[in-house]
Known about the structure:
The chain is 57% helix and 12% strand.
Amino acid sequence: MHIAIVGNIGAGKTTLTELLAKHLGYEPQFEAVDNNPYLEDFYNDMKRWSFNLQIYFLNSRFNQITEINKLNKNIVQDRTIYEDAYIFAENLHDMGLMTTRDYENYRAIFENMTSFIKAPDLLIYLKASVPTLVNNIQRRGREYEAGIRLDYLSKLNDKYTKWIGNYKNGKLLVLDKDKLDFANNPEDLGYIIQSIEREMHGLF
């Protein structure tokens, strides 16, 4: 079983991945943020580094998903390869921070890569308003995230709404992070686990 958690920056994906892995006995797979050589440069100069950053993420996540497919284990994954293309790269192009030439090149590479992989059995979307995202980003205090603009987060949310609204690759569970405090409230976590079990039993 492969569960993947998707959502905007600061939605709580990593925390939920850790909690679900622990409670379900799954193996967690995390996004490689700390070792990313482009992130800090990207937040300082998005236009210059957008293509480099997205290619790095694409390659990193393709390697991760091919390993997941090989492992044949129960996995909870923090973020997916699909978000790179449908959310982040598309948004950078829309905002004029990635050229059309680079974006088209990027999408061609993405389409080739995703033809070789299987979508998650269950996709969990952590929906969160911009104020919730900002609170979480400020609380974790990553220096390179300090300058993220509100309009950037808002545009990403719009992209998630569009993508999730058209998602047809497998089972989907949408959770409202504004109303759920799974990190501190065991009842909220229990509700999420029950919801996942309901969806998972529907797979068989």
